[in-house]
Amino acid sequence: MSQNLPMDQPLGLFAISGSLRSESSNTTVLHALQATAPAGVIVSLYDGLGDLPYFNPDLDGETDTPPPSVGQLRTQIGQRELPDGQIPPRKRAA
Hints:
There is one protein chain. This protein has one domain: Rossmann fold (3-Layer(aba) Sandwich), CATH 3.40.50. Helix content is 30%, strand content 13%. The protein is built from three helices and two strands, in the order E-H-E-H-H. Strands 1-2 form a two-stranded parallel sheet. Helix 1 links the parallel strand 1 and strand 2.
């Protein structure tokens, strides 16, 4: 799939490792990606996975207030900008 990304803006990647292990190979790879990212690519690593509660859709209604850690993650994800006209895959399917 080809995307037309603006060349004058850096490409931002928001990376989440699914492991809480201190010596996780997945987290190590993400740190390496962050350290070796080329110019124009900014890799942000999420480090709050251990603070998130188990997912329970019964507690995630439109009128429910999420726990602070969930709200913070949603804010961080919401701050990520997509090129004009791009829709995240999950929202596209909804």
